[in-house]
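Figure 2 data, in text form.
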Amino acid sequence: MNKILEKKYFSEKVVQLIVEAPMIARSRKPGHFVIVICDEKGERIPLTIADADEARGTITLIVQAVGESTRAICAKEAGEYLRDVVGPLGRATDIANYGTVVCCGGGVGVAPLLPILKAMKAAGNRVISILAARTKDLIILEDQVREHSDEVVIMTDDGSYGQKGLVTDGLEAVIIREKVDLVCTIGPAIMMKFVALLTKKYEVPTICSLNTIMVDGTGMCGACRVTVDGKMRFVCVDGPEFDAHKVDFDEMLMRLRPLPPNS
């Protein structure tokens, strides 16, 4: 049982939980995730660790209510407990001093991107962060991102905040303006696909996190199969991060499509 110490709403359906998990807080690294089970009837939900406080023994989780299990997690209040929080799982991000690193986060993808950009900055990189969402209200963790970035670019579909346009618009402007040594992107699969197409055009190495396709989180269910460089990979055990230029995003997007009624 893991106690929820704090709860904060970013929007109606996006919640931040600070949870007691001292062993995970001590051992987690950027890119790691945990499996969360809300209660005795809950299913396994993989969630990337957005932050950790080793001294306090806590981890930070950002949860978007999209189904019954995530809605149940989001309904929990401070002082209540999650039945199980297991981890850290997955392969950690390869952190090094690359030079200039652009970190592109879309929607709740900013949450798993935060520990990566923090670590990239600590490793001596110049970090430019691009946060993208449909509207101003869906931009999350902006203050924390600014604290660990040399520059922050905000892109919104409707122009309600920052610049009007897509994440690729902001990214291309940066690539044209200066030399970029690495791009990290986390967000909706369609966003990562077009980031990868853009950076391939400019020959900029790019890593992406495919955590959105995970289910079981241990490689047993096989639901997170993806094709990378022509070979089958399991996101939860081989990733969640991969060379974005080698991912078959069209296959991934096809598998993420909802089933038709009565199928």
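Caption note: The first strand starts at residue 2 and ends at 9.
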